[in-house]
Design a protein that fits this description.
This protein is an alpha/beta fold. The protein has helices at residues 18-25, 34-47, 65-74, 83-91, 108-117, 127-139, 175-187, 208-226, 252-260, 277-280, 313-317, 405-408; strands at 4-7, 10-13, 16-17, 29-33, 53-58, 77-80, 99-101, 121-124, 144-151, 173-174, 191-197, 233-235, 270-273, 284-295, 300-304, 323-325, 334-340, 349-357, 363-366, 387-392, 395-400. It has twelve helices and 21 strands. Helix 5 (108-117) crosses helix 6 (127-139). The protein binds ligand LLP. The modification N6-(pyridoxal phosphate)lysine is found at residue 60.
Length: 417
């Protein structure tokens, strides 16, 4: 559930009219709802209350400082994949001691930064990375907390680009080799083995693949114990899907309790969750203005002022996101449109074949854009990135100003005469 609703046929973000925000801040712009973010995070946290746990929001979904700050105030942990994301978490008031660091390619400076900041754990993806973390920790005379990401080899049944738990994917360590890799880790002087983690993919709409992965990881935890390696936490990754169209993913509470049901006898095992999309996707919309309507021979096009550089999910994954009118009261004729941006690529579309009642100048909102929207935005076609706005009840906060043209060539130089 989210807080983007119609009142008298006008789309509102919490108590504020979306049309008013567009008027004040111009389009395209992202609008986030604080109440929705908090509601989604709390759904995970409350469902897990009976078990030691930490909800580590996956920063990659939306790394705006305003968003991170809202989560930090709730006491959230954070799942990061770069030094840049760690810097954002710290800048936003997040606690580094609640940070887990995922990703296959951590550099030495990133590891050093994370060790100095005192993060909770490195989620390690290879032996080479164990060696690198050990070396950097030794140089700093510290012990690095680590967890090993195992690849449980389950099919997440999601889009191949966002499926991560199969042997064919680059992520994690195969189950069969995990014991040996843990033994290797325990032989390294500057590592402290803390946990185990897995992440099988994103936008999962069924609970069963999560359960299958958990079963495999729990079996490994027991096998490790018989080898004298005791773990204090289990990180189940993220990946819970959301409703974009007609998907029926389990609610966070249902997902969390299904997993915790497997852990009733393991109260000493702290559980970490890394949700990104389930918290942010439906907490944001992308608002765009119709520039022109164009009748082709086969199709009608609504050319809007947002494009694939603002929201790449439709182009990249053929993702379907709902496109709705900001003002539903307007008397317009209905027609089917491909909603396209101004970028010079055939793949530049936000939605295809959408029945809309629109004219030039009308506002549209692309729903479910809070996750993997702005964070995947680019300056392609030298377009400035959109403004980001956070609504909190009756109040509107600009949490990122629209870029200016000079931002486009910041750091660039022409050649000397
Ligand atoms: N943990 C790890 C290690 C991850 O790789 C990811 C996402 C997450 C947590 C968060 O997953 P979530 O709860 O958001 O599903 N750009 C794609 C999604 C890529 C997800 C990558 N990893 C999209 O727009 O659909």
């Amino acid at each position: 559930m989210d807080f983007f609703n119609y009142k008298n046929q006008q789309l509102f973000a919490e108590n504020v009219s979306v049309a008013k925000i567009a008027q004040d801040f111009n389009t395209p712009c992202y609008i986030y709802s604080r109440a929705t973010i908090e509601r989604h995070w709390n759904a995970f946290d409350q469902a897990a209350h009976s078990h030691p746990h930490l909800v580590c929001y996956a920063v990659k979904a939306n790394s705006n400082l305003g968003v991170l700050n809202v989560l930090a105030r709730l006491g959230s942990g954070f799942d990061i994949v770069s030094g840049g994301e760690l810097a954002r978490v710290i800048e936003a008031g997040g606690d580094p001691a609640k940070v887990v660091f995922s990703g296959v390619g951590k550099t030495e400076p990133e590891i050093e930064y994370a060790l100095e900041a005192g993060i909770y754990c490195f989620n390690v993806e290879s032996e080479a990375e164990l060696g690198r973390i050990n070396k950097v920790a030794a140089e700093l005379d510290k012990k690095a907390p680590i967890s090993i990401r195992v690849n449980p080899d389950v099919d997440a049944k999601t889009h191949p680009y966002i499926s991560t738990g199969l042997k064919a994917n680059k992520f994690g360590i195969e189950r069969e080799r995990a014991i040996d890799v843990y033994k290797y880790a325990s032989s390294l002087s500057h590592l402290e083995i803390k946990g185990i983690d897995c992440h099988i993919g994103s936008q999962l709409t069924e609970v069963q693949p999560f359960i299958d992965a958990l079963d495999k990881v729990l079996a490994l935890i027991d096998e490790l114990a018989t080898n004298g390696i005791e773990l204090s936490h289990l990180d189940v990754g993220g990946g819970l899907g959301v409703t974009y169209q007609d998907e029926t993913p389990p609610a966070p509470a249902e997902y969390v309790s299904a997993l915790l049901d497997k852990l009733t006898n393991r109260k000493n095992l702290k559980v970490m969750f890394e949700p990104g999309r389930a918290i942010m996707a439906n907490a944001g919309v992308l608002v765009t203005k119709v520039e022109f309507l164009k009748q082709g021979e086969e199709k009608n096009f609504a050319i809007v002022d947002a494009a694939m550089n603002d929201l790449i999910r439709p182009s990249l994954y053929s993702a379907w996101q709902n496109i709705i009118q900001v003002d539903e009261s307007l008397e317009r004729e209905s027609a089917n449109y491909d909603v396209v941006g101004p970028i010079c690529e055939t793949g530049d579309f936000l939605g295809k074949d959408r029945a809309l009642k629109i004219e030039s100048g009308d506002l549209l909102a692309v729903r479910s854009s809070g996750a993997y929207g702005f964070t995947m935005a680019s300056n392609y076609n030298s377009r400035v990135r959109a403004a980001e706005i956070m609504v909190d009840g009756d109040t509107v906060h600009l949490v990122r100003a629209r870029e200016e043209l000079v931002d486009l060539w910041k750091g660039e130089a022409v050649l000397p005469e």
